[in-house]
Amino acid sequence: MSTxxxxxxxxxGWWVLAAAFVGEMLAIGSTIYAFGLFVKPICEVFGIxxxxxxxxxxxxxxxxxxxxxxxxxxxxxxxxxxxMIGGALAxxxxxxxxxxxxxxxxxxxxxxxLMAPGSVAIGPLVANxxxxxxxxxxxxxxxxxAAVATSIGGSVIVxxxxxxxxxxxxxxxxxxxxxxIAVLMPLLAWLVIRDRPQDRGLxxxxxxxxxxxxxxxGPLWTTRALLAxxxxxxxxxxxxxxxATNQALLVSLVPYxxxxxxxxxxxxxxxxxxxxxxxxxxxxxxxxxxxxxxxWLLLVVAACMIVLLLALIAQPPFPLLLALCCLAGIAxxxxxxxxxxxxxxxxxxxxxxGVLGLMNPLNMLxxxxxxxxxxxxxxxxxxxxxxxxVFIGAMLLAALLVLLIPRREPPPRAAGAALGRPA
Length: 423
Hints:
Blueprint: H1 2-8, H2 12-29, H3 35-46, H4 50-77, H5 80-100, H6 104-122, H7 124-134, H8 139-168, H9 170-191, H10 213-217, H11 223-227, H12 230-259, H13 264-288, H14 294-314, H15 318-347, H16 352-381, H17 385-403
Helix pairs in contact: 2-6, 2-7, 2-8, 2-9, 3-4, 4-6, 4-16, 5-6, 5-9, 7-8, 7-16, 8-9, 8-13, 8-15, 12-13, 12-14, 12-15, 12-16, 12-17, 13-15, 14-15, 14-17, 16-17
């Protein structure tokens, strides 16, 4: 009877993933997705332009990019549960400051120094790190599920905040969100989150014994060793190029479509289709990552982006453009779980937080450059053709970098002497 009970019991790793999923929803849904709700109210209250208001999102991205390497290192060496509790409180405190302050400078500091690091401490980096530690055979599937949290956050958190904002104003909406994060996330972290399955006397995936135990955890990589490792730069740059191109397309797709004579409703449908299909892509590519070489899957992502970019230059009929946007949405959705799965495969679970965190500033920098470039290219030429041509070149470069990713994990000696787990 006990054997049957053990077989039917849900593996604790799925509960850990569920708690991290909620954190990721709150971290991204209440910031990146919900930011647009606050642009007009902020402009009206402080008498600033929309461009100035949008600098808040720029500060948020910069704060995330700069704090991710430090917090990623923390995850590799200290308690993720405590980090999530502290991050939730910091993020809630930042929202409280923004909601109560009448100073643009104070608001900017709260966004960059409290909200951004707090979102990193409860967001995708944490969820991916926990998924990597708790799963090996089902790692791709777990990473795909974790990646869906950002999309769900946009569809759940944004309407909630919009409802409160419409009824009570933007400050009240921030206060409600701050209270939700400050109460829910520390509670979930304390009750559910455990750093590793070994903390509960378990093995990854709920297996009876660890499979190839040394390979599951891996060495503790130093920053110096990572920066000298070819795989680090190939993975980081290829993913950054794909992500940046996708972000530049997202901010340009509606203007491009309306310039081409497509109605606003249909142009918006292109965006919605990409967003919906990205959820499918996260689950599909996450599951495939457990069975197929992740490098080939990342090549598929780059190829789909090239097809869409060529179509945008050719200006096809709307039905074909919609179909290609759906295809690109599936592909780009798969990029996030593939990125995490590649990092885990090449560098091990033990250094996962530090490696992924160190790649974040690179991702942020390339994305900011791409988003700025696409606007400048349009201003200079009057259309997006040049920008799309440059992005095709970026996808070809990304594909080349993918092919240069080492086939097997680097040997432990590459990590230097820092191999012992800290107490």
